[in-house]
Each structure stands twice: as structure tokens, then as C-alpha cells.
Fold these 3 entries.
Entry 1:
Amino acid sequence: MAGASLIALIDDIASVLDDVALLTKLATKKTAGVLGDDLALNAQQVTGVRADRELPVVWAVAKGSLWNKAILVPLALAISAFAPWLVTPLLMVGGAFLCYEGFEKLAHRLLHSRAEDDAAKAELSQALADPAVDPVAFEKAKIKGAIRTDFVLSAEIIAITLGTVAQAPFGTRVAVLVGIALLMTLGVYGIVAGIVKLDDAGLHLSRSAGAHAWAGFKRALGGGILRAAPWLMKALSVAGTAAMFLVGGGILTHGVPWLHHGIEALTQSAGALPALGGVLAALTPSLANAGVGVVAGALVLLAVTAVSKLRGGT
């Protein structure tokens, strides 16, 4: 009898762990847009910090991120327990904010020339070279700014995760939210630490001494890393922006029944076309979600701009 009870208990634990793993995987997929943006933003936040201080700054921001999530996870659990009706509105707000951030980035790229961006970077470099600038104060300001940015992105991650596990038992919600919080923090800042030290690694390899083939390979690899590092940052930024529209638009379409049903009908129609039906049916939901995301982002940006102008004029 005791053996049967133990087997039943183990089976229940395995079932719960399966649910946690499945929901964590689903939540990770849905938060991919925020993750890409989080990587790009946090890597950019370290710009201007001395090379020997980059990793301490990343570590300081990572600790701040953990504190952010230590506030947000209990708050999310309290909402799911005592005001579950708030989950969907919060999820919609998070989706709209993702679309807004994505469109703001897109608008910046379209409205600002490369020369303007280069001039801003040159101005920052000149300011940092000024002996009157306190490097300690600059570093602290960078850390505070990065932690503030992380709070917004962490809130989006937790809101999306909460929407994924809203119908799960309370224990599963706790496990998934805590798991996602830790996974995202360790994953993001571990990768950020690697990204910000890429140029140092490339420089070290490019200076390898010796005439033998292995030294030549290391020098070539180092040069390749140095050339690829800026492109990696650009690729992360582009991928993060695209994922924002896909994820944010997907959240909004699932929250608006007529939009969701309309995309389903469009997908079925695309699938019925000869030859390319299968490919179009696979692409249509993502393209439709991205389209909704772009439109929603534009509308939110217009509203925010209008409100800002009205407040500035009063």
C-alpha cells in the first residue's frame, strides 16, 4: 500500500514537472521578442564604460534585474490569485507596449540619418574624454539607467508569462514564473557579458605572435571576430525589433476575437491555394501578427506623441 502511494506521489510530481517544463518552454517562446530587445539594449548600455569595468557593470545590472524580478514575480502571483480578471488587460497592455517599442525603433531608423547617429556617438566619445567627467558617476548613471530599462522589459516578460500560465494551478504558476525570471536573467546577462567582451577576445587573438599555422589561424579568427562584432549588435537589434512586432501583434490578435478569427480564416484561404498553399498557410499567421503589431505600434506612438505635445503646450 505504501509502495503504491509512493508511486502515485512520484507520478503526480512527474506530471507537475511536465506541466512546468511545457509552460516554461511556451513562455520562453512567447517572450522571445523581449529577450532579443533585452540583449541588444543591455549590450548597448555598456557602451562608453572602460574595458576593465564592463563585466562589473554587467554584474551590477544583473543583480538589479534580479531585484526587479523579486518585486514583479510576487506582484504577478498576487494579481493572478486575487484579481485574475486583470491578467488579460495587462497582457494586452504588454503587447501594445512591445509594438510601440518596436515601431519607435523603426521610426528612429527611418527619421534619423546614419550621420546623425554617428555624430551622437562622436559627441559621447568626446564627453567621456573630458577630464572633468567623473568615470565613477558615469558608471553609476549607466547602471541605474540599465536597471530602469530592465524593469520595463522584465515587467513585459512577467506579464506575458503570467498570461501563459493564468489557468495553471498556483504551484505551477510559481514554478514557471520563478523559473522564467531566473532563466531570462542568467541567459540575458550571461550572453551580454559574452557580447561586450567579444571585441577584447578578438583583439587578443588578432595579436597572437608566431609564424606557425595555429598562430595565423588565431589572428585570422580574431580579425573576423572584430569585424563581425558590430554586425552582431545590428543583427540582434533587427531581430529584436521584428520579434517585438510578431510577439506583440500575436498577443493583441489573440485578445481581440474578431481579429483572431479573421486571421484563422485568412490562413485557411491561403492554405487552399494550389502549389504554395502549405507555405502560405504557415507564413500567414506570423505575417498577419506582424502587420497588426506594426499598425498597433504606429497608433500607440501617435497617441503618445500627441499626449506629449498637449502636455508640453499647457
Entry 2:
Amino acid sequence: MAHLAGQTVLVTGATGGIGAAITRALVSNGARVIIHFSSNRASAERLLEEINGAGWIAAADLSAPDGASTLWQQAVAVAGQVHALVNNAGIRTEIQLTASDEDWHAAWQREFRVNLFAAADLCRCAIPHFKAHGGGRVVNIASRAGQRGYAATALPYGASKAALINLGKSIAASFGRDGITAVNIAPGWVATDMAETFVAKFGKAAAVADIPIGEMADTREIAELVAFVLRPGQHSLNGATLDVNGGSYIR
């Protein structure tokens, strides 16, 4: 199972449900992980302990303009070489069309800052580093929402995830010859705290109504796919967007 032995992977938003699952899966495949967190150091330290110290923790506020570059500098400082970047950190903001101009603009700016701009800034840092070391991998955790559109109460989320998918495609097309590949993973509903909040409010039937298999994805499904995508032999997945939505969006 040591498909990723010798690899160091930076995972943003690593203390959330999907991020923690990705971290565990990568370590179980032999990688060392740089566990990014924003404010909950205790959760990051617990996760590092859980993976028996197979990595490092790094704090950065990705909603700040310099958050991504600060994170990358920390990653290189502790690990020396980073072989792959997993842009997993993301937020989802509820904002109505009737909101004030100030609230509307703030929601869009913060959501794009975390979901897209931070990922773009990290890629900007990572690509020269990857080139200097003979190649590297980028995996973007996008969303079904970025492909089929999203609810009127959360327009920034779908728009930012669509842009994240395009970022991955553009990197794949532009830097493949440099040994740098990029893959997008687009989940539908995943059984995380965000999903549980929705279920508590509206019921599970509402959450899975448009999912043919009748279940949300487990965080481990996303994590296992990330670990597979990062295997050294998976070069030809470059540019792909992989759907993990139970059949609720079929291209």
C-alpha cells in the first residue's frame, strides 16, 4: 500500500472532515502530510498524533491576501520538497439576492478568496517549485455545484468552484510537459458536518432526493480517490474532472 512512499503532500483545510480523511488516506499509502489549519491548532495536533507524526502542521488564514504564500513558505521550510498540493480548503456562504450591497460583495469576495484565489496563489508558488524538482501534482477538491450550478441562496459557492475546475484544467494544459499534472475531484453531497447541519434542518430525504444511489458520499471515498490520483503512475488523468456524486450529475 506504500504507493506514495517518499512523497510529501500539502493538504489545505486538513482538519475538516474531508481534509482529515485525505490526510489519513495519504499516510496509509506512505506519504507524509503537511496539515494546514486556519485557527484550530488542537485539531491539527490531534490529527498529527493520529497519523503517528507522519508530517507537520502549518497555520495560515487563507482568507487573507498573503495567507497562501505564507502557507507555502512554511511547507517548504519544514519539508524541503513538496511533491503534491491538494487544494481542499473551502467555505460555503449563504447570501440572499436581497442582502445589502456591502454584505453581498463581502460574501463573494471572501468565498472567492478562500475557494479560488488561495488555490491559485498556492499553485503559483507550487509550479516553479515542481519544475525545479522534476514535476509535481495538483488536486483540486471542487464540487458538483461548479458543473451544474447551485442554489440561489449560495451563488458564490458554485461560481467559485466552477472557476477552481477551470484553474485545474488550465494548469493541466499549460504545464503537463513540465511533469506537472492537475486533476479536479467534484463531489456532490459528502457526509460532513455541513451535510449533517442540512440534514438536521431539512431531513435526510431532502439531501439525497436527487441522488440515485440514495446516499451521500463518505469522506473516505473522496480520500481514497485523492490517494489514487496521486500515485506516480497516474499521469494520464491529467486534466480530468472526476465526479463523485452518486449519479446526481452525469455528463
Entry 3:
Amino acid sequence: MSELSVQLYTVRDALAQDFDGTLGKLASFGFTQVEPFALLNFADELRNGLARNGLTAPTTHMHLVDEDQDAIFALAAELGIQTVIEPYVDPDRWQSEADVSQIASDLNAAATKAADHGVQVGYHNHHFELESKISGVHALEVLADRLEPGVVLEVDTYWAYAGGADVPALLSRLGDRVVALHIKDGDGTLDTSKQVPVGSGVLPVWDFIAAAPEALRVVELDDSQTDLLDAVRASREFLLSNRT
């Protein structure tokens, strides 16, 4: 299996208090990879903190449309990031084929610019891209059909589940375009405070992983009623104790 990564948004409050120290804690848990968010906001902290803590960042989340894409992709390349992932597009834009086609066009255009920096572009879903169907097809799949081959997907398995998708079947249909999975657990609802360490909720996470075994596995919690650093550590321990 791929080594685990962790979405830094999970520990955003700890990062705000002590960015480098939080990276150090993640490294002490055994993580060697992280997934930054809001990349341009933390350029200096990442330049200094990744190498000092023995971490790499193969992926990052960063809004791309109407942003300074050259600056984003140049920083990604400098930091050794291979894939810049658009984390969110407004739910209202997933209701029609025309709107989804425009999202695909925006991502395809960004990917062309990214290629000049040796970087690729991806998209990360929430629940609404699965909840919305266009001619009976999940809007996320409508998007995938309109993306250029080099544009990839990071499937958030929790949100796909919450959106009503058969997640293993979805991953099978999307195939090699899926390069990363967000692995999280909870009660399967939209209430992020009910998210819990991986392995202690109701989601069949191993079924999801088995459907995309080569994808990078990124631990994430959007929120929780437990300590998020502890939740990240426990999630890693569960996933590695059940290594497949």
C-alpha cells in the first residue's frame, strides 16, 4: 500500500498555534507525508517545516479558479508537490450539465498551465457532487467524463458515502483517474462533529480502500468531538494495524 498522508486542515487549530511543532508531532506519529491546504498562505512555514520534520507533500488543496495559478504551481513545484487539488466548487454549480462542463473546462485550463511547472491538477469532492445526478449519473462522474486525461481525482470517501454513492462501485468506475482517497470515519451524516478516528465509526473503510488499492490514502477529519491530533494518530495506527 501507499504510505499514509494526512490533510493538514484536520489539525488547523494546532497549526495556528505552532505550525512547526504540529508538523513535528505528525512526524512523531510516523507520518512522512502531509497534504497542505490554502497553500499560498503557508509558503514560508512549509518551506522551512517540511524538510526540517522529514515530511513531503505529494498533494495539496488550493483553490484554482480566479487565483494566481502561476504562483500556485510555481510554489507547488518548489515544494515538490505533484498534484494541486481544487477542494471545493459551489454546490449550486453541480445541478446542470452546462455548469459541470464549465467546471471541467476550468480545471482543464488550469491543468495546461500546471503542466508548464511539471505539476498536475485534481479535484476533491464533497457530498453534493454525488447527491446531484444529471440524467441519472452522479455529477462527479459527469465531471470526470469531461476532464482531460491528465486531470485526476481525489475521492473523499466519507463525503461520497454521505452523498448516497455506492463508493466501491464509484471508485471502480472512475478507475485510474483516482490518485488519492480521503479516508475518514464517523456516522455517515453531514454533521462533521460526529466524525471519529478511522476504524471507530460505521463506514466500511476497507471496502473503499480495496476498490482503489493504489491510491494515496489521506487521513482527514473535518471536525470531531475528540482531540484531532489524537484522532489522527489513532487513525494511522488503525490503518497500519490492518495493512493490506
